Each structure stands twice: as structure tokens, then as C-alpha cells.
Amino acid sequence: MLNIRDFFPYRTLRPYQDKLISYIYDAFVNRTILFLQAPTGIGKTVSVIVGFLLARESNEPLIVATRTKNQAQIYVKEIDAINQKLINRGRKPLSFVVLRSRQDYCLYVKKKASYKSFIWLCKVIREKCPFYRNCYVGATPSERLSDALNYLIEKGGTPENILSIASRFKLCPYEIAKNLVADSDVIICSYPYLFSRTVRGYFLDALKKSLSDTKIVIDEADNLPEFILNANSSRLTVKMLQNLLAFLNEVYETYENVTDPSVMNRIKEFTELLNLILSEIEKLSKGSQKIILAPKEDFAVILDKSFARLVEIIEEIVLRIPTEEAFINALRLSELREFTDMFVEMQDKSELIVTKEEELALELRPLHAADIASEVFDNISTCIMMSGTLHPISYFKTSLGLDKSSNVQEKKIPSIYDPSRVIRLVDIQTTTKYTERNKYMYRLIAQRLKAISEVTPGAILIVFPSYSVMKAVMDELNKMDVDREIFVERRSSKIEKVMEFLSIYPDAIIACVAYGKFAEGIDFRIRDKTLLKAVVIAGLPFPEYNEWLRKQLEYLKTKFDYETARKLCLIYPMVRKTLQAAGRLIRSPEDFGAIIILDRRFLSLYKFFPKEWWTFHKFSSIETLKLRLSEFFNRLICSF
């Protein structure tokens, strides 16, 4: 009989790691869906692969969906370690492939483009691409592709290996990766391969089996409901539609008397409909609100299947015009067609809005992640959803449509960290409640931030509920004499830039937004040392209440009671974002630091948080704040 030591590649197990592997094994053997909460640093990745090997039946593959490329790389590292042990014991190593996007795996298109633009471009020029053409003879893999696949099955389908062999053999890396899927023991992919409708279809074709014949792991699953909503949304900017209209008007004027009248009539019909769409958006955008509900029934008159077909016809016409401008506008038509298809398919479970948040646009947003997630979970037999912050699990079960399933289990691994190495402080004076957002409150928060910076012996992460609150508070803080370098997140900020900044200024202040890039999924570590010594929640990060959120609440009230709908839309997203941000602080047993909540609303909401958060110290003055922090840091530093 197999045991953990047959596959586990390291000398010792970490605390609770044997229990973690046991939970994974049981879930796979019993074919259940398991929500598994386990802290950072316990060794989740290697435990997944060992549990899979112990439970594996015949040739069932393991599909691991990760949120980031870095997470995928950790799985490759652990597979390499396990394979070395298997080889040493005379066993066959695991074959695997890391799936990336078509854009990441392209050697042909050098021009930078958005992901949607690239996908369309790839489809249009595929038959001309020498790398793609070298992959097939008719519909059969070429001998060159077969040789590449055999090499990678043995060496491992890492992105580096795939790109290297593709470059050497002049093959399409994406087609190589796709053809490795059916013969791989472990398939490492990003969320869209399972939870984006379009991408999932291509993936299942390559897999050549149903999801019910696989074992699935969703890593960092606390991000899944939000990802599903975002990945299955669609957006048309007014600027893009106006540019498309101007181009087609020019085409009509240029070719009116020299082209088939039926073609011109199609273009004229389309531009009239496009004008109606733009006119409706313009009319809805006249008020001061940033988000406006668009009446779906008005747009449904235009955005139907016949309109989608008309867009497709115009796209074919435009592609015949041999100019770069025509090429760009064919892409715009493709985006409009995709938007229309999604609207036709999803209009009963989504909402149409006009937004002015960045630029004027028409957006289609799903109302409940479960409506989309059910397409996956209804067709699988076993799945493990892992994270260190799956709290409360009831929120994730409901958000993913698994709240009524009898096949769902939940397990929690205890924390491996000393609770005395974290202090939680709650301000009973400040708040970012919408009705109390004013210059006085922003200055009060800034004064607290200055005080925290004076006594914290390391970097500080300040997490705001929105960009507007961040700007207002940071404007006040910049008027004060703060003796630290400050990095303020922008929508265009890159993780590499903030890490470079911290390498120069290791005790810097990082100001970011809870719904941005820096508040979760990033380790502020340099040379295996966590730089953060404080995370400040500068206002509980509730989602902004607007017309969209109101509509989402109304929709969920038709499925649940009001209290459940309120928790799903407002309370639990705030809790999740707070936990994710605070999770940046403790990444190893050696770490310590302070979590400071500058929002008195926490006092009435703390029971929605994990039980360890129920222990905290209240303060109302800067003097008390500084005293508490100084005592805490002095105690921890002196204990070294």
C-alpha cells in the first residue's frame, strides 16, 4: 500500500502537513468538492501533488488552476522535486504542461496589443503564420510537432522548454502546449481555462475527456467569485464605437458609387443601428452619476442575433479593404460582435450599465458568479478549492452555487504561527463611511498614519477602500513631515516597480487600494525576508454602493433573503479584502507586525471575521496608538 513517503520529496513534514495531505487524499478518493483553508507556509503545493498521487486512479489527470504565473512556477518546482524521487525509486516521472495564453506563447506577432486584440489577430492571420502551418499536415500533427511533443513529455512542459523547442523547430508554442494536454499527468493552467466560457471550450477539446474524469485543484480560490464576474463581463467604449462609425461613414462615402449596392445597404443599415446605440449611451450619461443602469429592453431591440450576424458580415466586408485602418476596425467589429453574443446569451443573468469611471463605456456584468460557476461545478466529480483566506466558507459556497450540494465538505488547518507575534489595533474615532467623508476625517486618518510611521520598524502597507479616499488622505499626509519614502499605487502601477522601490527603500510606505494590485497575492519579501511590519486598513473596504450594486442586491434578493444578499454583496467582500490585505504581513513563522484598522465600524462587524480577529485593542488617541505599537515592537525585537 502506498504511503506519503513514497512521493513526499523532503526529509521532514511541516506542522499539520500530514493532515493536509490526508484531507486532499480523502477528497479525491471520495470524489467530493472540498473547501480547504490552510495557512501560508504549510506546503500546500507539494501536498496537493502527493495527495493526488496517493489517490490517483488509472490515468486521471490533475488540473491545477492558478491565479498567477508565479503560483504556476511553484507547482513546477514541486513536480521536479517529486519526479527526482520517483526516478530514484525506478518509477515513471509525472508528465506535465504549463498552459499560458496564446499571446504569451506566440513567436510570430511582435506587435504589442491587448489580449482581446491579439486573440482576434491570431485567428485572422493563423493560416499565414509559418509557426502554425508547421504544426499540421491537414488536421494531423506534423512529424516535427510529434517530435517536439515526445521531447517535452520526457523533459517537462515548462514555458521555457516549450518556447525553446518551438523556436528551434519553428513551431507554434501554443499548439505544442495544447497538444501536450491530453497526454499530461498534471495540467497547470490559469483560471480562464476553466471559468471563461470561450477558453474552456478550447481547453476541453484539447483535454479529450470530460472534467468529470479529472481531479481539479483551484489555488488561491478566495479570488474565484470575483474573477468569474470580471472574466465574463464585456465592455464597449464610446470612443471605440465612434471611431468605428467614422471609419464606416468614410467607407460608405468612398465606395458608394463603385461597389455592389447590397454591400452599401448593409453598411448603411449597420451605421444607423450604431448611431442608435451611441445616442442611447449619450442620453443615459447626462447625469452626474458615474454608473447608470441601462434599460436592457431598449438595447435588446438592437443587440440581438440578427445584429450579431450583421456585424459579422460588416467585419468580412471591412477585411477585404487592404489598409491597416481597415484591419483595426475589423477588430472593433469583432469586439462588438462578441459583446452582442454575450448580451443575447446572458441578459437574464447580467446587467447592462453605462459607466463613466475611467471613460464613457457600455458594460455587461454578470450579477451572480454562481450562474456561471455552475457550468463547471455541475460537470465535475471532485475538486479542491484552497486558500489561506477562505472565510467564511459559506460565502464561497453560496457565491459558487454550491450551498445546496450534498457533495461539499470543508476543512481548516490551524495556523502554524504564534498569535503573540501579531497585534490588532482598532481606532474608535475614524471611519471612511460615505456620509462622514470630509476634510476633517481625512486629516484625522493622515495624523494616525504619520504616528504609525514614527514607531514602526519596517515597511508599512496602507490599504484604502478606493482611489478617491486614498488621494484625499495622501494629500493631507503629504502636508505633514513624514520621514519615509512613499509609493502610491496607480491603476497602471506594476508589481515589479513597487518591489524595486522597496529594494531601495526597505522601510517605505506603500499606499494602495483594496481592489487594486498590491493588497493581495503579492509577497513583500526581498531575499526571503518580509519587509512589512504594519498593515493599515485605512477604512473598511466595502464595495462602492452605486446603481450596479443596488441592482445586484435586488437580483440576489430574488434568490435569497435580504440579509443573505447584503452579506454576499457588501459584508463578505469587505471581509475578504481586509483579510487578503492583512495576509501580506505574516508570511513565515519568523514574521511579526501590527494590523491597524482605522475604521470604528469594525466594532460592530468583527464577528464576521475569523475568531482570532475577535481579540483586538481599541484606541482613540494618537498617544495610545503609539504607546501600544512601541510596546509591541520593543517586546518582539528584544526577544530576538
Given as residue ranges, the uncertain stretches (5+ residues, pLDDT < 50) are none
Task: Please give the count of helices.
Answer: 25
Rg is 27 Å
Q: How much beta, percentage-wise? A: 5-15%
The total beta strand count reads 22
- Estimate the helix proportion, in percent: 40-55%
Q: What separation lies between the terminal Cα atoms?
A: 45 Å
Mean pLDDT over all positions: 93
SSE inventory with pairings:
Elements (H helix, E strand, L loop, with lengths): L16 H13 L3 E5 L6 H12 L6 E5 L2 H20 L7 E3 L16 H11 L4 H4 L2 E2 L2 E2 L1 H13 L3 H11 L3 H8 L5 E5 L1 H4 L1 H11 L7 E4 L5 H8 L2 E4 H18 L5 H24 L6 E3 L2 H5 L4 H15 L4 H23 L3 E6 L5 E6 L2 H9 L5 E5 L5 H7 L8 E5 L9 E6 L11 H17 L3 E6 L2 H11 L8 E3 L6 H10 L4 E5 L11 E2 L2 E2 L1 E6 L9 H11 L4 H21 L10 E5 L4 H4 L11 E3 L2 H17 L2
Parallel strand pairs: 1-12, 1-13, 2-6, 2-7, 3-6, 7-12, 14-21, 14-22, 15-17, 15-20, 16-17, 20-21
Antiparallel strand pairs: 4-5, 8-11, 9-10, 10-11, 18-19
Core attributes:
globular, 640 residues, seven-stranded parallel sheet, alpha/beta
Q: Would you kindly provide a written description of the structure presented here, covering whatever features stand out?
A:
The protein has 640 residues and is α/β, with parallel strands linked by helices. 48% of the residues lie in helices and 15% in strands. Helix 13 packs across helix 15 (305-319).
